[in-house]
Amino acid sequence: MNAVRLSPPATLTNPGIVQVTIPLASSKSESNRALIIDALTGFQCDLKNLSTARDTQTMIRLLKSQDNTADVLDAGTTMRFLTAYFTVTGQQKTMTGTPRMCERPIGILVDALRTLGADITYLNKEGYPPLQINGFSSSESNRISIRGDVSSQYISALVMIAPLLPNGLTLELTGAIGSRPYIEMTLEQMAYFGADVQADWATNTITITPKPYTPKPYAIESDWSGASYWYSVAALAQDETAEINLLGLKSKSLQGDSAIVDIMRSLGVESTFTESGVRLTKCPTSEFLAWDFTDCPDLAQTVAVCAAVKGVTLHLTGIESLKIKETDRVAALQAELQKVGAELVELEPNHRYEVHQLTASHTVPATIKTYDDHRMAMAFAPVAMREEIIIEEPRVVDKSYPSFWDDMARVATVDFIDELFQV
Ligand SMILES: O=C(O)C1=C[C@@H](OP(=O)(O)O)[C@@H](O)[C@H](O)C1
Ligand SMILES: C=C(OP(=O)(O)O)C(=O)O
Prior knowledge:
Layout: E1 3-4, E2 10-13, E3 19-22, H1 28-40, E4 47-48, H2 54-64, E5 69-71, H3 76-88, E6 93-96, H4 107-116, E7 118-122, E8 131-136, E9 143-147, H5 152-161, E10 169-174, H6 180-192, E11 197-200, E12 205-208, E13 218-219, H7 224-236, E14 243-247, H8 260-266, E15 269-273, E16 277-282, E17 288-292, H9 300-310, E18 313-317, H10 329-337, E19 342-348, E20 352-357, E21 366-368, H11 374-380, E22 389-391, H12 404-408, E23 413-416, E24 421-422
Parallel strand pairs: 3-14, 4-13, 5-6, 9-10, 17-18, 21-22
Antiparallel strand pairs: 1-24, 2-22, 2-23, 6-8, 7-8, 10-12, 11-12, 14-16, 15-16, 18-20, 19-20
The structure holds shikimate-3-phosphate and phosphoenolpyruvate (PEP).
Shikimate-3-phosphate is lined by residues 29, 77, 151-153, 156, 178-179, 182, 297-298, 321.
């Protein structure tokens, strides 16, 4: 029998006074777009404050790698953006990732790239990674209809390569559009680097003319998705004088997850923008909150856990895309919220959900499974402001926010139970 050391769970206890300044990780979404655009200029941009997130480090590594295989691990943007980038730059690559990545659909993007002239084949299951990029000879076609309701990352991937296409690109987005702020972020960053982009949101049409990017310096903003966990800490803190200063955030952000400012006002957190970022303090809480997460799906877990523990009834819509992210986040929330005395129920099939507290008591500390999903770990960590909690596989946070536990250790005691597991 071998003794192996697995990633020890994190136990979070004893929140004291919550008075803290957090430098925050920078945005992996902004970083990964800037890196693709930089690569399309021949790596001539001076990118500042790039994210230390694994998703971004993977992007950096794969952009420079000469290997025939690009393993994106569990990074969705890296998979989708690189598939388009390697195609348009004529690089023959095998694109693969974790087993979960190979369950996350990519057919909509591949179909669009094929229309533009790509030769791409699936190596296992049609519509899913792994896939093989065999070559690209650009077609006359520069007008594509594409569904907007599965993942905005396909659209971001296509528009970023569009300035290099001989005829540019016109994308007609069909159906509902999910995660639209991420598309707008892409277009804003492209425009900053000199691309000629036009979005008509009345007709859901995006037009990009052929025109090379202009290399320029660019500084990445702090990560609003990562900031959301600090909002939850402030909302759940017992310390009525709690004050959290989050550095590097701006009130006018490219990131749609800055919607956390408005959401958390109902959950008892006031935001004051300062020269250095945003200051969180406590304010009165509502008893009920309804929110449509179509534009900000990555906030749903944070808000669901926070509302559940605070005893605020929450109605969620726009969370369909959660089922195809790092894990099925709806199922994961349903299982784990029970452990902190709450439940997530479906009010209208696949459309409207409710989170509410249960009257029965629950076992403390709860041990939360994270399902290879960084946001499960970080969404449940703030529960420590109310009761002891154990988070399994805590290093999942490395995907987007590697310093998360170091930062949490400033408002809670974080113990990694260093035990030997027998196999
Ligand atoms: O473009 C991006 O940077 C992202 C878009 C969103 O994905 P979907 O468009 O698949 O919802 C979001 O959930 C993801 O974390 C990052
Ligand atoms: C869904 C996420 O990332 P991605 O789709 O890029 O893997 C996320 O960070 O929550």
